Amino acid sequence: VAQKIILDCDPGIDDALAIAFAVGHPGLELCGITTVAGNVGLDLTTSNAQRVCEFIGAAGMPVTPGSPAPLLRPLVDARGVHGDTGLGGVRLPSPMARPSGGHAIDFLIETIGAAPGEITLVATGPLTNIALAVRREPRLVSQVRDFVIMGGSAGRGNVTPAAEFNIATDPEAAAIVFRAGWTVTMVGLDVTLQAQATAQVRDQMRVLGRLAGELLLPGLERYATDMDPLPALPKAGGQAAEEDLEAAGPVAQAAGHPARLATQAAAQQSGREPGGPPVHDVCAVAHVADARLLGCIPARVEVETMGRWTSGMTVTDFRAPAAGCNALVATEIDVSAFWELALGTYARLAAAMS
Ligand code: RIB
Ligand code: CA
Asked: 8, 9, 10: which to mutate for ligand 1, most atoms within 8 A of CB?
């Protein structure tokens, strides 16, 4: 029987590919989507989730918006990586349906509470909605069948040397979530940076009809190509203008000159690694579909919220005693098996769309 999941996300190119995977995989039943501000603002993450669902034949999918901003910090988005629309080069029609009424937090609490032990919650954006939901209904942590996130890293970050985007965007929310009492399956950069949509992978997608032509490829190719034009270089010796720093993202705000650091940060986050853009969020959903893809190790994870240079770091202790572990941290991925599953799932979805 298919595994029920709810996806809390911030589409986002890789979030969009995660939605397509969740709808396409026969072993998964996507019961609903909740959206959060992250890669782009909440209105866009919500309409992006809706337009993707309508495009792939899941028009009736409930899409319920949640938090328009992190708990305490201003939103520092990732338009430099995902483009101003949040979906890179993807041009899908505006959604026909309106978002579901109500708030994401209530959707999560009511839907999971009505089916205790049945629904796996997957979060692929900042954890703002999840933090508010567990604060409002602490029993959520025992009602979910499982809780899986794309986020964090036991090693390096991508928006700063220490922090991965989803955690760095709302460290306070992540701290609440990791301390809520459940075991968080943390699918972080340690494995997701290996899930690169290489030119060879993208070539294999080209036969997948409209799904590839209008979603997968225009999304990935934007991800893989250059970033938005960088803010104008301030005069030599001058301080970067506030708006330039704002536009340049967290690495630049951490220290100094936007142009250089923003390129580095955006390139890191979009994973313009030699192979191609990493489809971070698809890894989290694929793990639910087939737990053999990832190797996970118990650990204690604490989220740094005060560090001047390390805010948003998921401080991972693999030596913690079992009783102190609050996470299963993914440390290995079978990359070829991942792409075999992902491409097979997209092929199934493409066939259903034709
Ligand atoms: O660091 C990668 C994560 O940040 C992914 O979820 C991507 O969508 C962005 O939100
Ligand atoms: Ca995301």
From this structure: 10
Residues 6+ away with beta carbon under 8 Å from 44: 85, 86
Looking only at the bridges linking them, the beta strands covering 314-317 and 63-65 are unpaired
Buried b / exposed e across 241-280, counting CB within 10 Å, b at 16+? eeebbebbbbbbbbeebbbebbbebbbbbbbbeebbbbbb
pLDDT, residue 275, reads: 86
Apex 155 CA angle, 149 and 159, nearest 5: 75
Q: Which residues, in sequence order, are CB contacts of 60 under 8 Å at separation 6+?
A: none
DSSP label at residue 17: H
pLDDT at residue 312 above 90? yes
**Higher per-residue pLDDT: 238 or 279:** 279
Cα 144 to averaged position of ligand 2 atoms, centre (Å): 21
**C-beta 268 within 6 A of ligand 1:** no
160 is written with which tokens? 């700063």
pLDDT tens across 146-159, in order? 999 999 999 999 99
Which pTM does this prediction carry?
0.88
The answer to whether residue 280 is catalytic is yes
Q: What is the mean pLDDT of the chain?
A: 90
Best of 150, 189, 270, 287 for a ligand 1 pocket test (most atoms within 8 Å of beta carbon): 150
For 157, the 3-state DSSP assignment is: coil
